Amino acid sequence: MNKLYLWGIIVTAVMLLFTYMSVAGSEGGLNGDIVNMLAVAGAVALVLITVFVVIKYVRQMQTDTAEGELADESWDNIGEYKNPVPMGWAIMFLGTMVWGMWYFLVGYPVNAYSQIGEYNEDTQVHNDKFEAQYASITGDRLIEMGESVFLAECKICHGINADGIDGKSADLNRRIEANVVKFVIENGSNNKLLGSEMPMPDRNGLFNANSGALITDAEIDAVSAYVANGMSGAGADVYAGTCAACHGEDGKGMDFVAPSIATFTPELVANVLTYGKKGVMGQMPKFERLNAKQKEAVGAYITDLSK
Ligand code: HEC
Ligand code: HEC
After folding, report:
1. Nearest ligand, CA 288
2. Cβ contacts of residue 232 below 8 Å, gap of 6+?
3. pLDDT surpassing 80 at residue 37
4. Which residues, 6 or more positions from 285, have their beta carbon under 8 angstroms from its beta carbon?
5. Which of 12-26, 79-93, 141-155, 289-303 has the lowest mean pLDDT?
6. What Cα–Cα distance (Å) separates residue 80 from each residue in 57, 73, 84, 192?
7. Among 30, 119, 143, 258, which has the minimal tally of Cβ within 10 Å of its Cβ?
């Protein structure tokens, strides 16, 4: 017998054996229901067709010789026959081009139903309902909502009491810690805390108006303690001479100039959630999945905590 057929039979037998084993081993097995039997029958047919079509072409390749008129060009001694494109190919080629244009312009991408689209529309409807239901809550209810957002999204880094877990992230029971203030004075800050690009200069841009000179190390320590102490104690003169022009005399900030460093405000928290924040403790991620109301609520919660 021809060696090729022998191989064909071996491959067929092995593939059918695998099919049989996987179907027989599956739940329900071969006797389970007709679907399994159909699957096996289909597999037998596919394997047989594949194997024998392959054999046909392998044999043909062994004996075939090319014929026809050679083109004049030869590339590294490789010639090319001037055979016309078979009609079937030409029709398929043109047909694919027409179909491609139809598909691109009229078919799927522009017009079709999409599962993701349906999902997005559905979630949009629900989000709108959510916003409508909670749009007008204020006061204690807003703070409660903020607490639940906090427990779901923030406690993993800020701790269940919002104490920052030993400096792993910001302690939100107070506006700011001395090391954060010091870091910001030394390095400047550009976290879009005001909601847009408005950086705070670093120490080379901070003059103490009282002395008329750049802020010194001792002054930085003093003013950092002053701010972290809730704007009280020593360092008040440095603050008044260096920081008050932007952050206001009481530290509560000024619109479009500098944020409040005396208290949290819902707007500040919302900006931190929208843009994220990188500082001396690390990276606070942005929270795109929270909507405006949720940001406002968690801002109200934190503002209330740090009062
Ligand atoms: C020229 C105006 C200007 C001056 C002067 C200035 N700041 Fe700022 N400060 C800003 C701005 C603007 C930001 C917000 C930067 C940002 O978006 O990251 C900021 C941010 C800060 C922050 C970061 C707040 C946070 O939540 O992380 C601290 C702390 C701070 N300033 C403290 C000071 C102190 C202390 C001084 C005085 C030594 C001072 N600033 C002087 C404009 C100023
Ligand atoms: C992956 C950890 C992580 C998560 C989650 C996280 N934070 Fe933070 N957050 C940080 C870190 C770290 C900082 C300190 C950044 C720095 O070095 O100034 C911070 C700082 C802050 C600040 C202080 C900003 C300032 O200007 O002083 C606020 C407010 C804040 N986070 C609110 C939240 C809220 C609200 C959530 C939940 C919606 C939250 N964070 C979730 C890590 C996190």
Report:
1. 2
2. 226
3. no
4. 276
5. 12-26
6. 22, 8, 12, 66
7. 119
